[in-house]
Write a structure and sequence with these properties.
Elements: E1 2-5, H1 9-14, E2 25-28, H2 35-45, H3 61-80, H4 90-102, H5 114-132, H6 138-141, H7 149-154, H8 163-173, H9 176-187, H10 203-213, H11 217-227, H12 229-235
Antiparallel strand pairs: 1-2
């Protein structure tokens, strides 16, 4: 299980870490630092990672604190149900949300209303999405992560092949024109207006990196498969 630590902002600023003075930190029950959870909170704070539905300014301290406690609650649930967040599939997130709705594993022991349960499940999903595209072991064992609440309700499953494999398949199956079209469909901007890349081997790197940083992976895969059958069959 995880515990949330709220740092002393004055002390952190005096120590030269003012940028992270408002960001909570997570530890396990034995006082061990949880690097993945804490890094995720820092990247959310700095907007290095933004969920697809996040169009707001930098998150406030209260928002980061809520996310931290939601992740800690999921950690409590995984401990109670003998899950490991590094190996869970999206089915575990659904089970977690259902347990919250029915009061089976809520911290209070009472059923949570759908809005609250959705908020917790959303934050867990965003964290797992972030983990799946940042090279953690979770990526290898959880192939199906849905990044939005609408996707959960629609039952849509999003495969996340390893980024290196995607780059290879893009270079092998797609032309520069295909990649330019994907760029425009994703970002509503011409690729040639934003980057100076003419070699097909380098174009996928630019596109994948931006799609990853701006949390467009699900849309990227969907557009790639719909626009090019050869690419779709290569990553199936």
């Amino acid at each position: 299980m995880a515990k949330v630590f709220i740092p002393d902002p004055v002390l952190l600023k005096q120590s030269g870490f003012g940028r992270w003075a408002h960001v909570p930190v997570l530890f396990d029950d034995h006082g061990g630092y949880l690097p993945e959870h804490s890094r995720y909170l820092r990247e959310r704070a700095a907007r290095i990672f933004r969920p697809g539905s996040d169009f707001k300014d930098f998150p406030r301290h209260a928002t980061l604190k809520a996310i931290a406690y939601h992740l800690a609650d999921f950690s409590r649930w995984t401990a109670l149900t003998l899950h490991d967040w590094r190996t869970v599939t999206y089915d575990a997130v659904i089970a977690y949300q259902n347990d919250l709705l029915h009061g089976r594993c809520s911290a209070s022991g009472r059923p949570l209303n759908p809005k609250t349960a959705n908020a917790l499940a959303d934050d867990v999903t965003h964290f797992l999405h972030w983990a799946s595209i940042n090279g953690f072991p979770h990526l290898l064992s959880s192939r199906y992560i849905m990044p939005t609440r609408a996707s959960r309700h629609n039952g849509w499953h999003m495969p996340y092949p390893i980024v290196g494999d995607l780059r290879y398949h893009m270079a092998d199956k797609l032309s520069i024109a295909h990649i330019q079209t994907l760029w425009f469909d994703l970002f509503a901007r011409k690729m040639e207006d934003e980057i100076m890349v003419t070699r097909v081997l380098l174009c996928p790197i630019e596109l994948l990196d931006r799609a990853r940083r701006e949390s467009y992976f699900p849309t990227f895969i969907d557009l790639s498969c719909r626009n090019n059958l050869r690419f779709s069959t290569s990553i199936d």
